[in-house]
Amino acid sequence: MSTPFPHPAGEDGAPPSLIFVIEDDPDVARLVLATLKEFGFNGEGFQTGAAALRRMQTETPDLCIVDLGLPDMDGLDLLRRITTLSSAGVLILTGRGHAADRVMGLELGGDDYVVKPFEPRELVARVRSILRRRAAVPGSASGRQRRYASFLGWRIDCAANILRAADGSEHLLGTAETQVLRCFVERPHQILTREQLVGSRDLLPSDRSIDVRISRLRRKIERDPHDPTIIKTVYGAGYLFAADVSWS
């Protein structure tokens, strides 16, 4: 169950950054949400990873504050799924102080790592730092604004699952195809593993579901699906999206 704050206008007229707080300890969640509200952020709280992921189907946050000790899934797995499905930043907030957890969290895409107990104002400072760093990166606009991606004459509406060609013809993509294509356009010119693209860290070697999705996408966007130039296979590593992407 989420606990939303209203969306007051920011100083520049834009809504404040939206932050998901995924924390099962109600006292900690209340403290974090109240602190975020005090400093002008818009926050929503979730007690489980599943609840946060469901909410992300309709609203993409600018940043997620993730506790690693969640009741329904491992926080590191949730972190990986967040970074696969969205462009949101991630701040790990946890009682786990082991170096291995810290390193794993950062390697999986976490932007920063705070160990409990914490000073609320320091947490806000780290939140602001992450948002500033991400805003300074070209193409890293808020996920709420990153709906339309264009590449090589194609345009994808990530919210409506519609892929539009240069001639105006449209393809309605399945949810799984949209997820894969969104992963690609979020991270062009980067090698993505099959696990990253399918959204599962426990993908079996015999699972060919991602290959089927890639094949379907190639049939839509490649001139020659058998000799692809956009979605390239990097043998032994994964796939690479070899096109420049612009967002609107």
From TrEMBL:
Gene3D superfamilies: 3.40.50.2300, 6.10.250.690, Winged helix-like DNA-binding domain superfamily/Winged helix DNA-binding domain (1.10.10.10)
Domain of life the protein comes from: Bacteria
Domain Response regulatory: 18-131
Span of the signal peptide: none
PROSITE patterns: OMPR_PHOB, RESPONSE_REGULATORY
Residues with 4-aspartylphosphate modification: 67
DNA-binding feature ranges: 146-243
Key words, A-Z: DNA-binding, Phosphoprotein, Transcription, Transcription regulation, Two-component regulatory system
Limits of the OmpR/PhoB-type domain: 146-243
One Pfam family per UniProt: Response_reg
Protein name as annotated: Response regulator transcription factor
Source species taxonomy: Bacteria, Pseudomonadati, Pseudomonadota, Betaproteobacteria, Burkholderiales
